[in-house]
Amino acid sequence: MSIRLLLVDDQSLLRLGFRMVLETQPDLEVVGEAGDGAQGVSMTRALAPDVVLMDVRMPVLDGIEATRQIVASGSAARVLVLTTFNLDEYVYAALRAGASGFLLKDVPPADLISGIRSVAAGDAVVAPSVTRRLIDAFADHLPDPSSGRSTVGERLHRLTDREREVLIELARGGSNAEIAEQLTVAEATVKTHVGRVLAKLDLRDRVQAVIFAYEAGLIRPGQQ
């Protein structure tokens, strides 16, 4: 079955370049193109793509708000944010809005294709360690953990002690194998715990879990 894609970017030439790359793959199908965030939201609703490639800076409605609206609508589409700079100041906001990760616009074709497949499979394109470096770089933009603490705390209490340990190690950038070694458990056990953490906290993927750990005050920028 093909992965259905929607391209949302105000640069038609860039969309054309992406489309040429993507359509060389038998399992990828571009079902639509939008020139701004508002159109992207409406086309997501109409076309039900599996993955939305979303630019950040666009007219009418930017990619952050468009991502937020798509996620809030309950759409099954997963959003992969495209950005010009590795530490774009808007990326953190996009991830908080519900994006499943981000890629650079000049990403090598092979990495773009791999990223799309990963997101479609339910994984996050941004590795936890990369997400952490991004959040560390923009520490001043992080919300105060004390704001909304009651809501975050109520969700945190859903976790067992072991699940909380897994969440902390995940936020520190650990892979499943590294977390397993740190906690002296099987890697399959860690995978199960990660799945339960995401389900109990109502999170979409590991990227969202890392952000939640920061917001809950479990780990702070620069902390090892």
Describe this structure in words.
- This protein has 224 residues and is α/β, with parallel strands linked by helices.
- It contains eleven helices and five strands; from the N terminus they run βαβαβαβαβααααααα.
- The chain has a five-stranded parallel sheet with strand order 2-1-3-4-5, with helices on both faces.
- Helix 2 packs parallel to helix 3, helix 8 packs across helix 9 and helix 9 packs across helix 10.
- The N and C termini lie far apart (42 Å).
- The mean pLDDT is 83.
Characteristics of this structure?
single chain, 224 residues, alpha/beta, 5-stranded parallel sheet, 11 helices, 5 strands, 50% helix
Rg measurement, Å:
18 Å
Q: Helical element count? A: 11
Low-confidence runs of at least 5 consecutive residues: none
Sheet with most strands: strand arrangement = 2-1-3-4-5
Structural class: alpha/beta
| Morphology | globular
In terms of DSSP E residues, the strand content is 5-15%
Count of extended strands = 5
Helix and strand pattern: EHEHEHEHEHHHHHHH
Distance between the termini: 42 Å
Q: What is the helical fraction, as a range of percent? A: 40-55%
Mean pLDDT: 83
The largest pleated sheet is described as:
5 strands, parallel
